[in-house]
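Ticket reopened. Same input as before:
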Amino acid sequence: MIFMDEDLSFLKNGFRLDGRRLDELRPIKIEVGVLSRADGSCYIEMGDNKVIAAVYGPREVHPRHLQKVTRAIVRFRYNMASFSVEERKRPGPDRRSHEVSKVSREALESVIMTAYFPRSVVDIFVEVLQADAGTRTAGINAASVALADAGIPMTSLVSACAAGKAGGHIMLDLMKDEDNFGEADMPIAMTPNGEISLLQMDGNFTQEEFGKALELAKNGCRQIYDIQRKALSDKYRKISGEQSKEIAGGVEVYE
Amino acid sequence: MDFMYRDVVVPGDLISEDPEKAGEGTYVKDDKVYSFLYGLVSTYKDKVRVIPLAGKYIPAPGDAVIGVVEDIVFSNWIINVNSPYDGLLHISEYPKKIDLSEMTKHLRIGSTVMAKVKDVDPTMKVEITLNDRMLGILKKGRVVEISPTKVPRLIGKGGSMINMLKTEIKCDMFVGQNGRIWVDGNEEDMDLALKTILIIEKEAHTTGLTDRISEFLKIEKEARS
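Engineering reply: fixed in the latest deploy. New output:
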């Protein structure tokens, strides 16, 4: 814990270290279908986080003993590139990435309609190219869009974002310094109708603070959902725009 | 908010308040119809449905498919049908009566067949058959692969698109629901056929495509003569 003047360190005239307000997200950029060899893919930038997600499947399960007779299984691999952080990260899976993979998988599994594809697997790979606090939420956002891009049946998209506390202030979407020197960080994942499929917390909140942070994070998720939705419809507009000059014209039914 | 015809929807979008209208690509929750796919809204026989923009081929009984023999086990050929699920072609579904020991003589690993899906059980065991006069082994021609979600467009309404291709380009064609298309004719015609099929795949979701393809074929043929 730090013993500085809290207001001076994390908030100046109501603005944060990077000039945001307390309830403001970092700028988000989403690109759909960036990988041609994957069935679905998505690249996302949330502030200084740069994450790419690839989805394969439904496909045959290997090794065979993992397959379920009545439904598809979902596998999720979260991996950080060795160059994604300031001090070189030892490559390969570690305790943290196992945990992030597990919770992210569970956050998405609840919306994927696995019963449609018995005895198969949906593989999700998330690679963190650059990290700046909040990579698991960026990974879930990207994976959710990549799943839609792959044509996987889902009850809805999933949006994720974090809220936390730094210098005694409850704030949305913590960046690296706020996360490292702050008091609490709470990532959540949520469907647009408000069902929460991930909720983790690191640090301390009072009960009121928790409620406030949860509300803030939910609001952030709603904003992210709109961006995800727009990215997907923009992708279609882009491909259909390239193809046809008279798309707005008549309609054509095909069977 | 109801979606308009041909609007893009994402999973979870509300597309209708009338549960009676739930068609393909949709699910009903609390008497409302939602999309479970990323695709385009369309109406078909007073149902609303969602046409996917991507996805794998999932075998259904009655589908015509093009498969490649992957393995031979017991009295079955294992056929890859470009899907998460392999097809099983039992020896009794071969058009002729053949002996177990002679299976490899008729269909070897790598052989390509035009087949039909006979049955799919709930665990997705896919049985396929060659017992139909339109089916058989492919010995010449070329096979091209497109996204299975674009196959309905290649066939067109009531077969309009594929029939036009067959008459305009002098080629034999067989369209598998699994996105594999067999084309046979002279080299020049096959080149044109494959080129056209790939254009149709790329522009599958645009309007007035049949007319544009017909125009395209006319120009191509004039250039050749």
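The first helix of chain B runs from residue 103 to 106. The two ends of chain B are 54 Å apart (CA to CA). Please confirm and we'll close it.
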